[in-house]
Every structure is written in structure tokens, then in C-alpha cells.
Amino acid sequence: MTGWTIEDMPPLRDQTVVVTGANSGLGLEGSKAFARRGATVVMACRSVERGESAAKEIRDAVPNATLDVRECDLADLSNVASFADGLRADYDAVDILCNNAGVMAIPRSETADGFETQFGVNHLGHFALTGHLLDLLGAADSESRIVTQSSGAHEMGEIDFDDLQRERSYGKWSAYGQSKLANLLFAYELQRRLGNHGWDDVLSVACHPGYADTDLQFRGPREMGSTLRTAAMGVANAVFAQSAEQGALPMLYAATAEDVIGGEYVGPGGLFDMRGSPEFQQSNDASQDEETAEQLWAVSTDLTGVEYDFERT
């Protein structure tokens, strides 16, 4: 995969791709790339207004883009369920689901369902969404893929089952690390369960973008009201980060490349895995712990009320 770029993506005509957080950053660049290859892109966005603005930007670059902007607020499980219901009503199948949206290092807050926001949005929202869309993914004519966006920050994460919502002790970065570790535990456990139930035509793959220049880094400083930290983040992004277009490559590779198998982890292969062309990588030992993954799955099922139905109809 040395030097792999967007130009190496296969044609995606007649395929339906769902991208969460499609209105900015990696989601926007990924949606644009999928549209260039002919896919119908469902842009799942918390704000339809911002989603429509992003869709206009994509159509300016890809005049024949087929885009469908829909509201999907991962911080509200009832909204996630409504989004999935609407998708099932209008589509017969989903070929690629990119669990991309996320929040990073923000002051403690809670979702509509009372979950700590980083864990609730980054993990639980996507856990619920994937479960709701499993039947559509299984209905694809050819192999379908579920791509879950993690981060190198998973290495500083720890799943604290005694305080998952960080009510007793909250650190914005430790909470983010927990959510990104949860993304990997989920992606790998989902692949195991798909394989165990004979869903060989549906793959679960994980990825991370390295350090990409997106709006993700600015939300925390803004919510803290820190002009200084916002400015410092802007300088850091300008000096050290790769572009959002480059940061989207691992997700795009995981979603479309022919040599990808279930359970892979794709990230940029340059300096400190922060930038560069996508490559297969190894996440840390904690992310590979099957006992923790099974416990997290059970807890996630209880918290979201979403049961995965692996029976094929």
C-alpha cells in the first residue's frame, strides 16, 4: 500500500456509504472522496444546516455527487434510532458504514441519555448505530464494511467499568483515551462476532488518522473559553499536522482497499504514526483483550438497549 492515495480507490458506483460527522474534517474529506468514486453518500450529521453547507462544498468539487444529508445526533440515542429507521425506509442496503464522528478532550458534560459525552458519542452512539444498521449491511450485494475511527490516544485509555461515565474522577484526556480504546475493543469484538455467526461478507475494520488538521482539536479549548489554548492549537495544527484530506486516507483505505480483512487496524505509516500513507498497524495490548471486549459489549448493550441480531433472514 506504499504511497496509496485517493486515486487508488476502486469505483463505487451503485454503492451506498454512510459517514457520521460528514460535515467537517475527516468526514467531509471522506465523503468527498466516496462521491468522486460514484457512491451515494449518506451524510449523517448532528446539524442538517452544517451538513447541507458541506454538501454544497462537495458538489462544487464533484458536480455529479449523489449526496443525502440526514440528521444523526450520536449524543441522543432516540435520534440515532430515528436516523436508522429513516435509512431502512429509503435504502435496501448499506455497503460501507464509517463510524467517524467524535469529540475530543472537552470539559465534562452529558449526552441526552446521561452518558459522559466523549464515551457516549465516540463509542455508545456508534455502537447503537451499527446495531441498528446491521441488517442493511448484511443485505449488500457484495462484501460490506464497518469502519470505526479510533486514535493513537487509545494507548493512554483505560476502561474503568466502576466509573465508565467518569462521575467520580474526570480528566478530559483520560476520558478521550477511554472512548478511543472502546472504539477498538468494539471493532475487534464485532469482527469476532460476525465471524462466529457466519457473516463472512461483512467486515469490521478500525483506523486512525494520525495528527490531522481538523476542527476536532478546537472544540475543547472553545468550550473552556480559552482563547490562548485555541490559538496555540491553531499554531500546532499549522506546524505539525497533516491535512484533513491526508488524514482521511486510513479510513478510505480501510473502507475500500482489496487487501483489507476483518479486524485490521489502519493508520498513517510516517513519523510516529502521525502522518503519511496508510499502512496496517498493531494497536496496543489493552485493545486486544477479549475479556474486556466482551464485558464492554455487554455493558454497551445494557446502556443503549440495542441488541445485535446476527440471525440472517
TrEMBL record:
UniProt-listed Gene3D superfamilies: NAD(P)-binding Rossmann-like Domain (3.40.50.720)
Pfam families: adh_short (PF00106)
TM helices/strands, residue ranges: none
Molecular function via GO: oxidoreductase activity
InterPro entries with a match to the protein in the record: NAD(P)-bd_dom_sf, SDR_fam
UniProt-recorded name of the protein: NAD(P)-dependent dehydrogenase (Short-subunit alcohol dehydrogenase family)
Top-level division of the source organism's lineage: Archaea
NCBIfam families with a match to the protein in the record: PRK05854.1, PRK06197.1
Keywords carried by this UniProt record: Oxidoreductase
